[in-house]
Structure formats: C-alpha cells, structure tokens
Amino acid sequence: MKVWFLGTGTSQGIPVIGSTHPVCLSNDQRDKRLRVSVWIQWDDASYIIDCGPDFRQQMLTCQCQKLDGILFTHEHSDHTAGIDDIRPFVFRQGDMPIYAHKRVIESLKKRFDYIFEEEDRYPGAPSVTIHEVDRSNYFTLAGKIVVPILVMHGNLEIFGYRIDDFAYMTDVKFVPDAEAEKLKRVKVLVISALREQPHETHFNLQEALDFIAKVQPERAYLTHISHLMGFHAEVQEKLPKNVFLAYDNLQITV
Ligand SMILES: [Zn+2]
C-alpha cells in the first residue's frame, strides 16, 4: 500500500494568511502545510481520506488520474470544503463514492445541497453515491477491509480508519478503549498532534506520543500540525526514533 501525505496542516494551513510567525515565514518546504488529507493506493485502487479546501491543488501536485472514492473523518470545513472540485473525476468516471458518518452526510447535504439535488440538477454539478459508515460495521474497498475507528474530537464522534496494517486518525482528543483495541498490531499509525500546548478538541504533542506508546505501532506519523508546533526540523529532533512529523508530499509504503 502506498500512502501520500497530501496535506499535514491544521485548519488554517501553514503559512497562516497574514501571519509573521517565524514558522509561517520559514523557507523549509516541510514547514508549508496544506489542510490534512492522504492519498492511499494499492493494486489499481485509489482513495483519499478527507477532501479539504486544498483538494484541487493536492490532486494537481500528486498527478492523481483516477479516484475511486473519498472517506470522510468528519464534517469540519478543513476536511470537506474541496468537494466541489471532484467534478473532473465525476465527468471522467461517473458518480464519486463517498464514505462517511450519517451526521457528516447530513451536514454535506445542507452545505452542498446542489450536489445532492435529485430534481433540476445543474448539469455541471458534482454527483456522489453515498455510503453510510457506522462504528460497528467493517466495509470493503477493492478487496481490503476498512475498519472505522470511532474517536472523540471534543464532543464530536468522528472516524479514523484502519486498512490492513495502516491506520489514519486525525482531529483526535480521546480514543475509547474499545476503539483503541481495533489498532492492535497495526504497523503504521498516523495520528494528529496539534502543538505542544494543550487544546480542548485536539491531542497535543504529549497526548499523541502517549497514545503511540499505548498502541505500539512500528512507526507513527504525526499530522494536523499547527504553526505553533514549531519548525519541522527542530520538532523532529525531539521525537522518539519511530515517530515522524509528517510533511506535505511525504510518501510512504506500508
Ligand atoms: Zn481538522
């Protein structure tokens, strides 16, 4: 399985518009972070997790030719706002399968009503097929089992996903024990870590490291990173040997 980090930033991205914070002014490419998303490929299959406002730019950068579906973690704009730009894929391939929590689908229907309109559709509108995800049902994508993992983003129930030896969990503040069980023997864990200071709805660095120590994957990658985390090069120095700060366009094999 190949995993391409399309974006590794928190909701505003880095640089933050208008910011003169040193990390926002950094010349290190690894300090430039689009909104979070990953592209996952195996055999002929091609899926992304989340579709934020940088989706178009991300698809152009990774030269993605075909997309078989989108898995959503939750409805916040930094994870969904790019959905209008699925149109080139829809025109070539037909309706785009989307996989999400029932509440996320309801939210998308409200915010992108024209996509879900059944009558008098604008001819150029994107179209999707809906697959509702719930915490207790696995589903299959191109021959692989996908395990939804319910995590808490503050008070919001959101999903992470495990596919074989790979798990992706962003915007995490708390993981119930029964859900953490689903991560047993996972080899590669991607987990969000916002910054060093605590935050109400996100793991900070220490909380993410504690969770990694509990799950014990072979390798872990941190994502959904704020400029307040610091310079990539300096933060990476401080991490345990098997923990890596992800960066945009990092590609790994699982
Ligand atoms: Zn987010």
Secondary-structure blueprint of this entry?
Elements: E1 2-7, E2 37-42, E3 45-49, H1 55-62, E4 69-71, H2 77-80, H3 87-93, E5 96-101, H4 102-111, H5 113-116, E6 128-133, E7 139-141, E8 144-153, E9 156-163, E10 166-169, H6 177-180, E11 188-192, H7 205-215, E12 219-223, H8 232-238, E13 243-245, E14 251-253
Parallel strand pairs: 3-4, 4-5, 5-6, 10-11, 11-12, 12-13
Antiparallel strand pairs: 1-2, 1-14, 2-3, 7-8, 8-9, 9-10
The structure holds zinc ion.
Zinc ion (ZN) binds at residues 11, 76, 78-79, 171, 224.
Protein name: MBL fold metallo-hydrolase
Keywords: Hydrolase
GO molecular function: hydrolase activity
How many structural domains does the protein architecture include? Answer: 1
Helix share bin: 10-25%
Average pLDDT score: 97
CATH fourth-tier homologous superfamily: Ribonuclease Z/Hydroxyacylglutathione hydrolase-like
Q: Key terms for this structure?
A:
binds zinc ion, 8 helices, single chain, 254 residues, alpha/beta
Notes on the protein architecture:
The chain is α/β, with parallel strands linked by helices and 254 residues long. The chain has one domain (2-253): 4-Layer Sandwich (Metallo-beta-lactamase, Chain A). It has 8 helices and 14 strands. The protein has helices spanning 55-62, 77-80, 87-93, 102-111, 113-116, 177-180, 205-215, 232-238, and strands at 2-7, 37-42, 45-49, 69-71, 96-101, 128-133, 139-141, 144-153, 156-163, 166-169, 188-192, 219-223, 243-245, 251-253. The protein has a 7-stranded mixed beta sheet. A 7-stranded mixed beta sheet has the order 7-8-9-10-11-12-13. Strand 12, helix 8 (232-238) and strand 13 form a beta-alpha-beta unit. It is globular and about 55 Å long. The relative contact order is 0.17. The mean pLDDT is 97. The chain binds zinc ion.
